[in-house]
Amino acid sequence: MQVILVSGLSGSGKSIVLNVLEDAGFYCVDNLPVEFLPTLIELLHDEGRGQVAISIDARTGHTLSQLPQQVHALRHQGIDVRVLFLEANTETLVKRYSETRRRHPLSDGKRTLPECVEAEREALAEIGELGHHIDTSELSPNTLRSWVKDFLALDRSRITLLFESFGFKHGLPLDADFVFDVRCVPNPYYDPRLRPLTGLDAPVIEFIERQEAAIGMLADIRYFIEKWLPAFVRDNRAYLTVAIGCTGGQHRSVYFAERLAERFRAEYQVLVRHRGLTS
């Protein structure tokens, strides 16, 4: 039996994820109180449900603290439980709530909307450590749908190494475990011929590979990951996200993410995401 627990901050896209999972054939349950999780799983297992998606978030109240223990217990029983945690920066969440005019679930008439967001972030911090993170701050709904489909295709028995390019001018991605800054590498943006291209295009690749700083930094980042990745594997980590940042997230960071993915793809389960190239 495969169970996907969808959690995260209100307004971060959980409804979109549940719709994707339902379209993929999952039996979906929204806003389940944590104390009912074991009973529901047992019931659906007896009914022969092979794929189940359950949304659990701050609306469940004080029993949320029970979730990590329940997840570990279900996994011990041999159930394939994956946790997908969605988040976004406070500015984005406030904007989304302002546009929809919806009331935040933690609103009590005493806290401002940003204060509600931060209180929810704190309440969910322990849940976020259980699984795979997606920062939806700069994502379109279609990009989020695509990334969720990538998540479904993963083999949970192996660690997933995610290389993510981004632009510092858009802010740090919240889902990163490691962040490397490659802005010291000469920037193709200042060549008018290369400006409209990306780190996926041959002329940009050729430009970057002529830079001694780029070759040296790529080797250093690769060495760091090679040295420490086995420790995360021994720690039974299911996911590790390495974010590579340049100014706009279009040229240098894209190149670095692609080259690092090539290096580790033969040995590990690898995903690549380019935040600056999504639409």
TrEMBL record:
Organism's domain of life? Bacteria
Source organism: Thiobacter aerophilum
Please spell out the taxonomic lineage of the organism that makes this protein: Bacteria, Pseudomonadati, Pseudomonadota, Betaproteobacteria, Burkholderiales
Family matches, as Pfam families = PapZ_C, RapZ-like_N
Protein known as: RNase adapter RapZ
Give the residues the record marks as binding GTP: D57, A58, R59, T60
Domain RapZ-like N-terminal: residue ranges:
1-153
Binding residues for ATP: G8, L9, S10, G11, S12, G13, K14, S15
- Would I find GTP-binding among this entry's keywords? yes
The cross-references to InterPro entries, in alphabetical order and at most eight, read: P-loop_NTPase, RapZ-like, RapZ-like_N, RapZ_C
On whether GTP-binding is a keyword of this UniProt record, the answer is yes
Q: Boundaries of each RapZ C-terminal domain copy?
A: 160-277
- Keywords tagged on the record: ATP-binding, GTP-binding, Nucleotide-binding
